Every structure is written in structure tokens, then in C-alpha cells.
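Re: export button greyed out
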Amino acid sequence: MGLLGAGVVGSGTLDLLARRGEQIARSIGARLQVRRVLVRDLARPRAVTIPADQLTTDPSTILDDPSIDVVVELMGGENPAVEYIARALANQKHVVTANKEVIAKHGPELLDLANRNDVNLFFEASVGGGIPVISVLRHDLIANEITSLRAIINGTTNFILTAMEQGRSYDEALAEAQRLGYAESDPSNDVRGTDAVYKLAILSTLAFRTNVRPSQIGCVGIDQLRQKDFKHAAGMGYVIKLLASADVGAKGIVASVRPTLIPTSHHLASVKGVFNAVLLDGDQIDKFMLYGQGAGARPTASAVVADLCAIAHNLQRGVIDRIEIAPQDRPIVDPGDMLSRYYLRLQVADRPGVLAQIAQVLATKAISISSVMQHETDETTGVAEIVIMTHAAVERDSAAALAEIRHLDSVREISAVLRVER
Amino acid sequence: MGLLGAGVVGSGTLDLLARRGEQIARSIGARLQVRRVLVRDLARPRAVTIPADQLTTDPSTILDDPSIDVVVELMGGENPAVEYIARALANQKHVVTANKEVIAKHGPELLDLANRNDVNLFFEASVGGGIPVISVLRHDLIANEITSLRAIINGTTNFILTAMEQGRSYDEALAEAQRLGYAESDPSNDVRGTDAVYKLAILSTLAFRTNVRPSQIGCVGIDQLRQKDFKHAAGMGYVIKLLASADVGAKGIVASVRPTLIPTSHHLASVKGVFNAVLLDGDQIDKFMLYGQGAGARPTASAVVADLCAIAHNLQRGVIDRIEIAPQDRPIVDPGDMLSRYYLRLQVADRPGVLAQIAQVLATKAISISSVMQHETDETTGVAEIVIMTHAAVERDSAAALAEIRHLDSVREISAVLRVER
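Workaround output, generated via the alternate export path:
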């Protein structure tokens, strides 16, 4: 095989193959052999030793070499990874990738290309690191109609939210995540929810057997959250998580990534730090959950090597596993149609009648209030903070109501708008 | 295919195949077709309609019919199921079974027979119902060295323990489980731990790639537990679960099923009612957990049909998946060697020096006490109850100490001896 990329996951994969090659060979009856490794800089020091004659900076020495059966893409990013994967498949090479962006955006087309060329494209490592959720959806739950999916699938944001739950500010939590290597120096891909959207697109597509594109998924990040939101939430029996949700409703599939209040008794409430979890509702199995390390070199390498073993197994027998993604074809509903309860935190002038005004606007959109807490007024500014919990409302209506409320004279700021999960 | 048994799981499987046959056929490119169903009584009314010409009371019309490719064994019990499975494999039929007793006791020999006859023997439904733990261990964690396994794998006992946690007595909880169909009229197989031992034997064998026999697994049931144990445990921050544990230590594999105090913050503490969960430690993935419905017609049928789909997939391609169980061959350690903390509840005479005597006996076996609670004395009998938490001790030493303590003049009864998990 040929590896594209020898960064954290690439090095982890090479290390795992070196340490456990013998045992894997005994289990699957074949030896996984690295022929060539594409890197950007031949001279750069690496976590693993790669023989100099395996290193290359020329992708064609892997993609076009007929002696290479399997290409492992671990470069990340959309380009040039997508072109390399397509070229490998067109050259009838099996491909294993950990690239969520490529699979989320181009998965159906690439799988089609793989099928036409009689090769496998496997991507277990693209979602949930060491959690084999792709394999479970493809094989083990095949007889189920999946109706709902709830997931914590971004370790960086879950680490930040867990730290905030323990009392840290957003900036402190982010800085700590960066110091520990859990967040990049530019964390926007994680904290704005983009990474979780890619993963949710892949999971929904497999779970519901319908192509769900990243652009069809609603997305709100965690950067609006403040320490006090966690305190308010805890007081009402909730934790805050960046929740990836997808449901099959009467109108079709609706999917979104949103910071969400989750009851402390909920299965996903106890998922802390960099751990991930995927909770599914299937008509045969009812509730089902997978929990584990969502990222990192070792769990991700574990998933890459499991895919490689499946391909080696197939190669020996001259067969392939086809993944047909969309035999069903449900409509995708605008995330604005999603029904949810809301947590609203607002800064308002501390004078009589303000709450009545806000309640009035909500009522015109048929949104009823479940509870209100008014917190102490800041004496210097005369601004009071109120937290409103609503009953279930359609997202579009709630957004329209909030747009009106924002323009009320007495409203200084809408500081947080969060979903509330039952 | 031919079905052996049309009870709860058999009917559930036929129902699922009838409802989802079309979709499964689209996914795997083959139709699963039932040829014959073995039953005890042709006339008996059933949950599903089975055409009269499919029903048979003669197993040879399935086991020896060359037109049947796959035999699905859902009769349960060791005999005659094990003979039927062996005969089907010898006749080069693939076999799917949900039979934990047969796989736990005869799995390695039957897998060997399957391999020699070039057919598959699949048994996903034998452990954890809708939780695909067998598949995950066989395929997805292939690159991991599993070092530890903790599981709640008996729904009946977990239902009873959850009800006791909520204040019910053992007898009330058992009666409720029987009324709801979760416990059989003779519940001993569940409450004495035998069912959990079978499942742990299967899981340990796959996880550690070493044959672990039911007879090598320590077993204690839940029938010693009383309401007050749950109250004492809760007061110290614990819940009580029937925990299946297996570890790889320096001397080998040690496995046991024991009622165990688990901290409320532990991942398995929140597994309630008839749900099951399996928590694994792998060197690549660290902590990993599967959670879901452990039994019942629908989840079990989901697992049976997933196995059938894998076999149909292989049949079309003319290949098989071999399961080689024991390439490693670690020694199995006597469960008496297991190291654990203990919770002891004793009835003692309320007079000075009793605790000192007990502590003295424990000290001779190098078992140190972590905490003691003495509860109010029953004035009419003069008997006091004490609860002792020990530091870690070897099970054999603790048993020897308890045998001595039992013979102390002042000790009326040792009412409960429970493991304590960190």
C-alpha cells in the first residue's frame, strides 16, 4: 500500500502496523506492507522512522504505481485529497481515508466511482476516531429503520464545554484545549461547528440511506456561550453540549449542529472531555449508543487499520464490499422547520413591562414560555439579565420572534439562543 | 434457509424478514428465503403466520436438505441444539445462532468444524441482543490489544437491581420482572449468574483471543442482596450491579461475574432496567462502550438478520469469514486470585471488642479496612449490623478471613460480601 500523509494519524498508523503487524497477519492471513509514503518535506523529523526509499514527494509514484493495491489517504483537507482519492479509485486501487471533509462533500460520487472500478472506498476513521459507527451502521444495523440520531462528534468543542461546565471561561477553556493539542491555533473549524457538520452529513447519509449534504445541515457554533449559561443550565438540571441531531420526520430528514441544553440524566450528558458518543434510535434495537475516543493518533489509526484488514480480507478472496448509499431517497427538510424548546438569555432595561413586551412578541408566533428567571440588575448600567425557557417552537418562528425582540426599545442584547433537548 | 425454533426470537426473526425483506434485498443484492421451520407442535398458535407447508417437526428435513444453505438455530438450551448445529455444519450449511450456552460451552469446537467444512458459524445474537459487540470485537477492534472488559450483560438481573435501587425488595423486584416477562418462572439461570457467565465466556474468548470456558469463570448471583445493601451503597456513592469482569494480568486472564458496588460516576452505573452495556479497554482506543437493548425479540432478531445478511453477502461471492479463536494462548487464572476491594455486611452481638476481633482476623490476612459503619442495634435481639469497606484484597484471602470471622463467637451472620469496583 501507499500512504498519503505522515502527520499525526499517518505516523500513528505506521507505528501501529509496525508494532502489531505479526498479530494482524495471523488474524487475517495476509501481511500489510507499506510501499511508499507521500510527504511534503523529505527531511522533516517524524514520530516514526520511515525508510528513506519509501519517502516520496511525488503523488504519482503512489497513485499510478500498479504494484500498489491500496491507497491510504491521511492528508486531510478537501484539496488535493479529493483528486488523489479519485485518481487512485480510477486506477483500480482500494482507498482508505480518514478525511471527513472529502467524504461529507464528495462521498456519494467517490463511492460510485469505487463501485464502477470494482474497488473499495472505506472511511471508518472519518467519524468518531476509535468508535466504529460507520461499520455498525453499514453491517450490524442493516435490518433497522433508523429514525433518530444524536451525537457528540467533536472532541475539541466537548473538551471546551466540559471545562466551562467546571467553571472556566470560554477563552480559558479554548487556551487550555490549544495548549493540550486538542484545538488548532485557528480553532474556527471546530468551534463554529463545521467539523461536526461534516461528520453528521456522513452519519445521516448512512443511517437514513439518503444523501445528506453538509450544506443541508443547520450549523451554530459554541463561541456565543458564556460561563453564566452553564451556571443557569446547571441550576435547571441541564448541561450544554454541541449536539449533532438528525431525525426522520413526516416531511423528511432534518439535520443540524447546535449548542444544546441536555438534561443531566440524558445518555449524552455524561460524555466528557475529548470523548465522543453516538446515540441512535432504531425500530428493532430501540436506543443504542457507541461511546469512545473520537480523535487522536491511536484511536484513528485503529480505525484505519481495521479498514485495511477488511480490504486485505477481500483482496485475498477477490471480492469487494459495495456501499450503495441512496436506495431510499427522502427529502431533506430545511433546518428552520425543526421543532425544539429554547433557552434564551437577554439583557434588558430594568423597568416595568419589559417582560410583558417580550412575551407578547413570542405569543404572536405562538411560542409559549415555560419559565422565566430574572437575575440581579447591574446598578451602574440599569441592565437586567433574564433567562427564558420556551415550550417547543419551530426554529423559523423562533428566529422571526427574536428578530422582533432584538428591536424592542428595552432590549439591549440577545446574548444566547440555545436548543433544549428532552 | 431453515429455522430451528419459532418461539419469541424465531417469530421476531420471521416477522422482521417479512416486513423488511425488500429493503434487505436491495441492500445486499439477495433475497433471504425461508424454506422450513422446525417446531415442537404444528397446531400451536404463534405470533407470526407461518405457511403450513413450511412447518415441520422433523429436524432432518432441515439439517439434511441439500437445498437449504443456512440454518438458523433459535431453540435455546444445550441439547439438542448443539447436535443440530454440528450436523448442519457437517452438512456444509452456514449456521446462525443466538444460543449463548452452546457457543460458551462448545464454541471453539464448532468454529473449528465450521472452518473444516468451509462454512460460517455466526452468533452475534448470543450476547447483548441488539448490541453488535461480537462484530465489533471481530472486525473493528482487530488492531487492539484488549486488556480489560466490564459488562452488564444480563437484562433480568439488571432490571431487578434497578428496581431494588428504587426501593423495592428483592422479592417484589423479581415478581415484577416475572410479571413483565423479563424473568422466567424459574429465574435461577439469570439470578444465579449462569447466563452472564456464558456471555462473558464468549466475550472474553473473542476479546483476548484465548479460549475461556464457563467453568473457568467465577460466579456469584444476586439472590443474597437485600434492600439495605442498596441504601448503604447509595450513602457511600455507589450503585450495585451484577458485573461481568475479565482482565489480562501478569499471570493470565481472570474472569468473574459478581454483584459489585460501582461508583455512581462510573460509565456502567447509569445502565438501568433491561439495558446492557459492554465497556472495553483497548491499547489503541482506550475506553470504549457499547450500550443498548440486551434481549427481547426485536433487538435479537436484528442481530440474527445482520448475521444472515453477512452470510448471504458471502454466499453470493463464494467466500467465508473464518473465525480463528485462539492464536494467542494465555493461561486462565483462578478467580480466587482476583484483587478487589470488598463491601461486607455482618450481624454481630452489640458488645465491646467485636469490631477489634473482626479487624484482627482481617489483619492476619493483610486485609486493611477502609471504612466501618455501625448501624443501630436491634434492642430485642441485641444484634448490631456493621458494614465494612476493605482496601484491595485477593479473593482467596478474603474468603479465608471471612470463614474465620463466621466462627467468631460474637458474629451472628455474614449477610453480604460484595466486590467494589473503582
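Chain B has three domains: 2-132+297-317, 133-293, 338-420. The button fix ships in the next patch.
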